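Human:
Class, as today's exercise, you are to examine the entry below, and be ready to discuss the fold:
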Amino acid sequence: QVQLVESGGGLAQAGGSLRVSCVASGTISSLSVMGWYRQAIGKQRELVATIDAGGGTNYADSVKGRFSISRNNGKNMADLQMNSLNAEDTGVYYCYARAFFKPYWGQGTQVTVSS
């Protein structure tokens, strides 16, 4: 089993920045992918960004150029730096990881952007 714990997030003004972090623990032999999804009220959960073990990244079009995902494989950590935030970035941000084709999710951390 893999446990994911998020930290960071909070409240920011439009145009500001926030950072969310995720630490994985448990039976970890290989996390092929780590990343972040988000869910706004009344909307489906959507991909924000992912990063594979080799450092390859994938971003939602809505965050390209503003968000940056990084990963520390030795510490089983993944961070998401969010810049130029806008109100549409508001939501619960969930850490995601995949190990041996099985997905794992964190509890989520709230990000609120005031306009």
User: Anything to note?
Assistant: The chain has no helices and eleven strands.
